[in-house]
Amino acid sequence: MNIRNLNRTQTFFADTHESVSWRINYKNSQIRFLVPQRNLVDRPFRNIQGTFKAYTGLMQTRSDGFTDAAIDFSVIINSINTGNARRDKHLTSADFFDVGQFPVIRFRSVSFEKANDNSYRVEGDCTIRGITRRLGFDVIHQGNRENEMGHTIAAFKIIGKINRHYFGIKSNVFTETFIGKEVTIVLDLEFVQMDIRVW
After folding, report:
1. Number of domains the chain is built from
2. What are the CA-CA distances from residue 79 to residues 38, 55, 65, 89, 180 (Å)?
3. For residue range 152-175, what is the model confidence (pLDDT) as tens digits?
4. 162 C-beta neighbours (distance < 10 Å), count
5. Mean confidence (pLDDT) of the chain
6. How far is CA 58 from the centre of its chain?
7. Can you give the pTM of this predicted structure?
8. Is the per-residue pLDDT at 56 higher than 90?
């Protein structure tokens, strides 16, 4: 599966508007997550940190700003990396993500609203393990620049928390005793403006 082979003729807007398409600049983007873990000896929680290496996404906007932007974003779960191969294998097993049946996490936005000058709130439907829930994330627009081709690049930091139990991501009682159920997600994403189309 080539996750970067995205159909760039796709639009998310139902009505007719001038639409600007943006694709991810993978060179300067990253998805990180943090999960609290309790140590068997000293008991306080610490964070397990990890990344997803494979993902794809498309953003479409209607104007120079990003209010009412539409985002379709997918993560390939098998690309998880916590720095521990044994743990990664366990996380992709049926005990947690069950990638054999559910290989992808998908998020499709339903709203993208401006909070202040550089901050937004995005809400959308997130599907994990075949379960879809409405989630919200805080978005910080970190600025724009131009690449060598003259295309605009927009940088964003997106932060949110997910209760993994809402998506059926849980293991046995013993394991659950030592792993927190709330996962912090941090996405550092750059989007490159591609073109403008009228639909």
Report:
1. 1
2. 25, 9, 32, 11, 22
3. 999 999 999 999 999 988 876 656
4. 20
5. 86
6. 11
7. 0.84
8. yes
Token reading at 183:
């996962």
DSSP string, 45-74: EEEEEEEE--EEEEEEESSSS-TT-EEEEE
* 86 domain-assigned: yes
Residue 175 DSSP one-character state: H
Please spell the DSSP secondary structure of 69-118, one letter per residue.
-EEEEEEEGGGEE-S-HHHHHHHTSTTTT-TTT--EEEEEEEEEEE-SSS
CATH number of domain containing 86: 2.40.128.110
Token digits for 112? 């993208």
Query: In terms of residue numbers, what domain contains 95?
Result: 18-198
Q: Please, which residues have CB within 8 angstroms of residue 59's CB and are 6 or more apart in sequence?
A: 21, 22, 69, 70, 71, 191
**Other Cβ atoms within 10 Å of 161 Cβ, number:** 12
The length of the chain, given as a count of residues? 199
Instruction: Locate 18 and state its tokens.
Output: 């001038």
SS3 174: helix
CA atoms within 13 A on the CB side of 182: 5
